Amino acid sequence: MNRPTDKARLLLQIRQEGITNPRILAAFEAVPRYLFVPEILAGHAYDDTSLPISCGQTISQPSLVAVMTNVLDVGDRMKVLEIGTGSGYQTAILAQLCRRVYTVERHRILSIEAAQRFQNLGIPNISTRIGDGYCGWPAQAPFQRILVTAAAPEPPLTLLEHLAEDGVMVIPIGPTDAKQTLYRLHRQGKKYKEERLIDVRFVPLVEGKTDETDAD
Question: What does pTM read for this prediction?
C-alpha cells in the first residue's frame, strides 16, 4: 500500500499542479496517505481523488491538499490553526512545515482516531481539540496561518479575529449544494485582502455544537 511507485505518482500529480516548493514535496513524501484512509480503500490512497471517511466526511484529493498547502505559505516558525481535522492527513502535512498545528474537529471519533495516527507516526507538534470550528481556539490565538477544510457561507468572524497581523487564512466559501470558491484572506491591520483562487467542493462547516453522537 506504500510502494515507492505510489509515492512517485503522488509527487508527479502534485508537480502537475505547479507545486515545486521542495519543502511541500518533502512533506508529501514523508506522510503515508494510506494510513489516513479506511483500510478497505487503502489501494486507492495515492489516486488523485477524494475518499470517504467516518462520520460522513471526506479526505481531500492529494492535489487539492497540495494547492491549499502551497497558497497558505507556511513558515517553519509559524503557529497554524486548522479547522476540520478529518482523518488528519492535511494536519500531518502542515506539521512537517510549521512549528505547531492546532487542529479542531467537531466529530469526537475522527479527532481521537487522528490523534492516535499522529502518535503512531511520531508527529509531536500537533495539538487536537474536539469542538465547534466556528469558535476556533481562542486560548492559542493569534495564529500566523489558518486553514479551514470545510465550506462556510462567509468567513467566520471569530476566525478572522484569530489571525495575527499579516496572517493568512485559506477557506472555501459558498453554499453546500453548489460549487464553492477557495479564498485566500490576508490580514492587513483591520482589513482583509481577498483573493479568489479555484472552484472546490467541500463538506459544510457546521456551527453551534459538536456532533451529538460523539458527545459525552
Answer: 0.93
The one-character DSSP state at 61 is P
Q: What length does the chain have? A: 216
CB environment 103-139: b (16+ within 10 A), e (fewer)? bbbbbbebbebbbebbeebebeebebbbebbbbbbee
Is 9 domain-assigned?
no
Domain membership flag for residue 93: yes
Residue-wise pLDDT for 108-150, tens only, equals 999 999 999 999 999 999 999 999 999 999 999 999 999 999 9
Marked catalytic residue, from 50, 60, 87, 127: 60
Q: Per the domain annotation, does 36 fall within a domain?
A: no
Q: Which residues contact 4 (CB under 8 A, 6 or more apart)?
A: none
Q: Determine the Cα–Cα distance for residues 173 and 152; give it in Å rounded to an integer.
A: 5
User: In angstroms, rounded to a whole number, what is the distance separating the alpha carbons of residues 191 and 213?
Assistant: 39
Burial class of 42 by CB neighbour count within 10 A (0 to 12, 13 to 18, 19+): middle
How far from 113 is each of 85, 117, 179, 180, 203, CA to CA, in Å? 10, 6, 30, 28, 19
Q: What average pLDDT does range 73-94 have in this prediction?
A: 98
Asked if the structure places residue 69 within a domain, the reply is yes
Q: Catalytic site residue 87?
A: no
Whole-number Å distance between alpha carbons of 172 and 64:
12
DSSP summary character for residue 138: G
Rounded CA separation 28/11 (Å): 7
